[in-house]
Amino acid sequence: MPRPRFTLRAALVVTAIVAAVAAKYSFVFRRVQAMDAGRHTFVVSLPLPGPNSPDPTKVGWLRDLLGDRMIHSIYVAPGENKTTETARLRELFPEAEIDPPPPEYTF
Which of 18, 44, 46, 69 is 20 to 30 A from 29, alpha carbon to alpha carbon? Predict the structure, then answer.
C-alpha cells in the first residue's frame, strides 16, 4: 500500500490555519456590515504625523489584509434601542468610544 501524501498532523495544521482565517474573516465581515448599514456614524483612526509616533490604525496584519480598519469612535443614531445596540457595537468594535451624536449633528 502506498504511503499517504499528507500526514494527519499536516491535515490538522492546515485545518487550524483555515479555521483561524475564517474566524477573522467572519469578524471583519460583521464589522464591515455594521459600517455599511448607514445607521451610525463611524470615525476612522488616522495615523499621527511624524516618524516615531505610534500608529493607532494597526489592527493586525491579517485583519488589515482582509480590509479591516481601526475605528476611533462611533456616534449612535437616535431612535435605536440604546442598550442592545451599544452592546452589539461594543462587541464588534472594542477599540472604539461609543457616544451619542453631538447636538448639532443630524443624521
Answer: 46
